Amino acid sequence: MVRMEVTDRSGEKRLIEASEGEVLMDVLRDNDFDVAGTCGGMASCGTCHVYVGQAWIDRLGEQPEDEQYMLEALAEVVDVRDCSRLSCQVTMTGALDGLVLEVAPEV
């Protein structure tokens, strides 16, 4: 199992677990973090936007081009940071055990 610490939009922190191979967006949605994932994981809506702890950014790998474009578009309506990722583009692996992240404001 991959453990992570997630801060929700109200500032409450919770420890949750995911199986390797699961998509982070699904894990957050299934654990009631109010992550909509409206586009079904196609990196085209931004409703699964999260802020990843700086120490974890490099472990997530490169952002796909579609994700980069979506984050650029999101910057017009919400705070997009260097640590912003779309959780639909993150697959859980053992290298992410201990991941720290925060659910970004709603779009």
What does this structure look like?
With 107 residues, this protein is α+β, with helices and mostly antiparallel strands. It is built from two helices and five strands, in the order ββαβαββ. It has helices spanning 24-30, 65-74, and strands at residues 2-7, 13-18, 49-52, 84-86, 99-103. The chain has a five-stranded mixed sheet, with helices on one face. The longest helix is centred in the middle third of the chain and has 10 residues, at 65-74. 27% of the residues are buried. The mean pLDDT is 96.
**Percent helix among the residues?**
10-25%
Q: Note the run of SSEs as H and E.
A: EEHEHEE
Span between N and C termini?
30 Å
**Shape category:** globular
Strand order of the largest sheet: 2-1-5-3-4
Total number of beta strands: 5
User: Low-confidence spans: pLDDT under 50, at least 5 residues?
Assistant: none
C-alpha Rg, in Å? 12 Å
Q: In what range is the share of β-strand residues? A: 15-25%
Main beta sheet strand tally, sense and closure? 5 strands, mixed
Number of helices: 2
Mean pLDDT: 96
Please identify the structural class as seen in this structure.
alpha+beta
